[in-house]
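Service request form, structural biology core

Requester: graduate student, group of Dr. S.
Request type: structure prediction, single chain
Budget code: on file
Notes: please return the result as structure tokens.

Sequence provided:
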Amino acid sequence: MANNLLKGKKGIIFGALNDMSIAWKVAQRAHEEGAEIVLTNAPIAMRMGEINKLAEECGNAPVIPADATNMDDLSNLFDQAMEHLGGKVDFVLHSIGMSPNVRKGKHYTDTNYDFYHKTMDISAMSLHRVLKVAYEKDAINDWGSVIALTYIAAQRVFPDYNDMADAKSLLESISRSFGYHYGVKKKVRINTISQSPTVTTAGSGVKGFDEFVAYADAMSPLGNAGAMDCANYVISMFSDLTKYVTMQNLFHDGGFSYTGVSNEVIDKFAK
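Core staff response, request fulfilled:
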């Protein structure tokens, strides 16, 4: 049910690929809550996905291609977005992640370092790039909100999450460091949301992903948080109801992050 939480607000959503994407659901919910949005993704991802279908559903939102590792692309994105929206934006969603090492089945101890650099640039440094462009262009309104999606592998070892775990650690650090500077200058708040393992096109590429999902569900008192529930949480973070929340890594995982062991898991080992 819509509550007009984002009425009058404007934003940019990175990373919607198809209807499995959390970013896709965030775009839908932002539109429902009264926001005007611009959609963006890398050109190659746009060719693979169905973003134009989402754009039509969201009031014919403009789709502006941008490689988030390319500063010129990002500069053009913010310029075009502000021109279309008639001014600065109020929120940005960073839902970007890709590891060539994962895609190529490279073990963490046998990392290809050229791939590793790409993982860091695409999955983490891209957030710094987005924020740098927005900061220099003064493109986000005072008290605006930036959210990046992360995963608990930044804090705990999940062997097959590979170098994406390193990338998520960097992503969270960037959100804190840039969150300080952007907060001091413009009151812009920057946070990460650490979501339950979620069935998305990107997540499904991780070895043992189905086991990840089943284990997390068995460990979480509330069960795994779904993609739409994550989208609702993101909307709350874009709204004025959370104006003083910044530089935080916010777990949205049904309690998994603070559960040592569950009875359901213990029962699986009971003789």
